[in-house]
Each structure stands twice: as C-alpha cells, then as structure tokens.
Design brief:
Among the domains are: 103 residues; 102 residues, no CATH class. The protein has 13 helices and ten strands. A hairpin with a 6-residue loop joins β3 and β4. The longest helix is centred in the last third of the chain and has 44 residues.
C-alpha cells in the first residue's frame, strides 16, 4: 500500500512562536547577563540596607567599607544629596552578622590612614536596650559625624588667632614668673609671701597627698551607690550631647555671647584682679565658717535623736485629734460658723467703707485735738497779769467772772428786763467811745475824774483785723504772748 503524503501548509497559514518576540527575549537575556557580568550585582541577594544623613560626604566613595570595631560588616551602596540642605545621604548594605542595629546607633566617617586617604564608615550599633531599626530606616544627622580635615585645622589657626595664642602664652608665663608686690603679699598667707606664682604652685605640691586622698574619696563617691549609677550618668550626658548636636545655631550664638562676655571681663581686668586677690581671704573665712558648721553638727544630730520619740508619737496624736476634728467639722459648717460668717460679710464690707471715711474724720479730729492741746487750752489757761486789778485767775475763769458781773449789774426790779447802766462822775478828763454799733455812728462822750491808763491788750483800732491768719490751720497758729502784750494808749480810738 503506498504511503500517503501529508499535505503542505503555506507559510502564511503556519502557526507557532512569533520570531520577533523570541528575538526580543534573546536580546534582553543577553543584556542582563552582560550587566550582571560587569557590575557583579545580584538584586535577588540584596542584604539589609539603611540610610544615614551626614553633614558632608567627605570624599566617601561607592563601595567604601562599613566597619564595627574595625571589622568590615557592610559597604556604601549609594550617595546622594538631601533636598533643601547641604547634607549627604548614604545608603549602606549590611551583612547579617552586623545586625541588629539600634535606634541610638552612631556613625562617623573616618580616614583609613593618617594625613587623609581613603575613608570608611565607623558604625556603633547602639545600646541593646534601645529599639532596633528596620530595613530602609534613616539615621538622623545628629547621630552622625565627619572627621576634621587638616586643612580645616590650618584654616582655623589664622594669623590673628596665632597672635592671640602667643600673647596668651607670654602673659601666662609672665604671670607665673612675676614677683608679687608688697601690697599683694600683705593679703597672702605666710607660706606664699615673696614667691612667684610658679613657686607657690610648687609649694602647693606639699599638700598633694591629702588633696589626692580627698580627690580619691570624691571620685569614689561619684561612682554612685550602685554599679549602674555611673553608666546612667554617662548615658544622661550622652543624651545631653545629642540634644546639643542638633542645636548648632544656638551653640554658635552661645559662643558669640561667651566671647562678648570675655571681652567685657577683659575690659575690667583691674577690678577682676582685685576680686581674685580677695578670693584667698574669702576662702579662709568660708573654711572657718564650715568648721563652725561642722562643730554644730553633733548638736543637730543629738536634736534629731531627741526628736525621734516625738515623731514616734505622731500617729497616736493624730488618732487622738481625729475625734475632735470630727466634732469640730459640724461647728464650722454652713449651719454654724459658716452661716455666721455669711451674715457678717455685709457688715464687714460696710466697716471697710466706714474705715475709708473714718480715716478722714480721724485726721480732722487729730487737727482739732492738736489745736486744742497746743493753742486753745494754753490760751484760756493763762493767768493774766493786769496789775492791781488782776484777779490772779486763769483766762477762762475771768471770762465767766465777767459774765457773772454783767448779769449782776444789769438786774432790776421794774419788770422791763435787764439793762446795764453806766455812769461816770464829772471831772476834767474827757472820755470818748467810738465805733461798734453806736447809733448813727455818733461817739459817746463823758468826763472822768482820773485819766485812763489805757487798755490791755492794746486795742488794734477801729476796723482793724486782730492778729489771726484765717488761711492757716489752727494747729500752726502762734500762741499769744499775754505777759508781754503792750498796753494801748488812752487815745487809741
């Protein structure tokens, strides 16, 4: 039987893989093999990566090592700038043995050899108690640092800085070798008199053993009571340093202010010198005061011991007072003293207002009392000396005597009221009375046997104001001088 041939299929009707797609896949495969061959980078085996922000890249290069305690544990994979700042962001890939890395980790770019050279990243992974960072996290700039370059050191020591440093050393040497003056020696203890500062410092070495012993005691005390006290202190100082590291601008301002302060102190160096010279006597006085305080401590200690039994009795005292407090609480409630206080509150407000008004009244009363004690009472208590006709009594008594005399002289029995009648006998001496309330202003005329001697005190005259100043307070008036009051002439008016 003859074999039957398979019918032929035209090219356009054939079905299978597209040669164009197969060609593209081959080109991509060749490109990947070429890239991995030259870069030696396997993306499927990428290790733990994290980023850190540095103030400067400091010539660090891709592939630079990352070390912990001098051991290579990773490499720098990427270097880029941080947006809006001059900082550099380094991406580092770490080996498994470098993990874990904690949140308080610190990184610093260091040179491999002295006087520059290649650089590496020195990593301190942080404290075990701190949280760990995750893949892709970023360490902030306040936990990173860059090395100080030699050119930066040379740039900092400019000519003016070097001159100031030389001046400082020269002045320090002069201060150590200068002989003290007689006035300066008078304020110094006998052990340092006549010696330079250097010689005095050498003499201070004789007190070294005791000072070192005291320093050892202080150092031992600074270690704390527990082994972890000093560690916690260092950790606290590190936290303070971290906070300061993020405050560069404030630190720069502080340095500027410190420089200004030092300049002001330098301008007052003479006063400062005098103040420093007084430090020795001040320390000596303080030493004596501390000695007295030390002597008083046993008494204080004994007082504490004696006071202890009283403290022990405090719970019993509180227990005994508690029932009284429970009974006193209703007394001070709103139904008792509380209500009384509420009723007294309006009266208290009125008393406060009355106090303000009473102050003015008291001032007026004071002025009246002073006027009475210094002017009125001395004036009416004075005994007037009118010669042979004087009664020898006080002024106020003579006033009442005169009223009694007028009352007796004016009495009559005809029922027409009291009338005072005066009559003089004839004589060669004419008497004339003017002023006052005389009818029509006409004077009264009479004749007397004897010539009048005058009036005491002297009559000031018609329509004259007596010696009284109405614009001054009574307490400031002048007390009348009754003894030396002049006698008025008979014809004074």
């Amino acid at each position: 039987m003859a074999r039957r041939e398979k019918p032929r299929t035209l090219r356009k009707d054939r079905k299978g893989r597209n040669p164009v797609i197969v060609g593209l896949l081959v080109i991509v495969a060749v490109a990947l093999v070429t890239y991995f061959g030259f870069t030696k980078d396997n993306p499927f085996s990428r290790g733990f990566q994290f980023q850190a922000v540095f103030p400067s890249a400091n010539s660090i290069r891709l592939g630079s090592p990352v070390r912990i305690a001098g051991v290579n544990v990773g490499t720098v994979k990427k270097i880029e700038g941080q947006d809006g700042t001059n900082n550099a962001v380094l991406t580092m890939e770490m080996k498994d043995e470098a993990l874990p890395i904690h949140k308080d980790a610190r990184l610093k770019i260091r040179p491999r050899i002295f006087l520059e050279g290649n650089f590496f990243v020195d990593l301190q992974p942080g404290t075990p108690s701190a949280p760990t960072i995750s893949d892709g996290d970023t360490v902030p700039v306040d936990q990173t640092a860059t090395p100080v370059q030699l050119d930066q050191v040379l740039t900092a020591l400019q000519k003016d800085t070097r001159t100031d440093l030389q001046t400082t050393l020269e002045e320090f040497g002069a201060a150590l070798n200068a002989k003290p003056t007689l006035a300066q020696d008078l304020r110094q203890p006998a052990v340092t008199r006549g010696k330079t500062a250097a010689e005095a410092l050498n003499s201070a070495l004789t007190f070294g053993p005791q000072a070192l012993k005291s320093s050892a005691i202080v150092t031992q005390a600074l270690q704390g009571q527990r082994p972890s006290d000093l560690t916690e202190l260092v950790r606290g100082l590190a936290g303070v340093g971290d906070q300061l590291a993020g405050s560069e601008r404030q630190l720069a301002e502080w340095v500027q202010n410190f420089n200004t302060t030092m300049g002001a102190l330098a301008a007052e160096q003479s006063s400062l010198s005098a103040s420093v010279a007084e430090l020795g006597p001040t320390v000596r006085t303080a030493y004596d005061a501390l000695g007295s305080l030390n002597e008083s401590l046993p008494a204080v200690r004994q007082f504490a011991v004696d006071f202890a039994p009283g403290v022990a009795e405090t719970p019993a005292t509180i227990a005994a007072v508690t029932p009284w407090i429970q009974q006193a609480r209703p007394l001070v409630g709103p139904d008792e003293l509380g209500g009384l206080l509420a009723d007294l509150q309006p009266a208290t407000a009125n008393l406060a207002q009355a106090e303000a008004s009473g102050i003015q009244s008291l001032k007026l009363g004071e002025s009246l009392a002073v006027c009475g004690s210094k002017i009125l009472i001395p004036a009416v208590s004075t005994k007037l000396d009118d010669g042979a006709l004087s009664s020898g009594k006080e002024n106020y008594k003579e006033f009442w005597y005169a009223l009694t005399g007028f009352n007796g002289s004016s009495q009559n029995f005809d029922g027409n009221g009291q009338v005072l009648r005066t009559q003089t006998g004839g004589g060669p001496n004419e008497l004339k009375l003017t002023g006052g309330n005389l009818q029509n202003g006409l004077p009264l005329l009479a004749n007397g046997i004897a010539k009048p001697l005058g009036t005491k005190p002297a009559f000031p005259g018609v329509n004259k104001v007596p010696p009284l100043v109405a614009t001054k307070a009574c307490r400031t008036q002048t007390l009348p001088d009754f003894k030396n009051t002049p006698v008025g002439p008979p014809d004074a008016g």
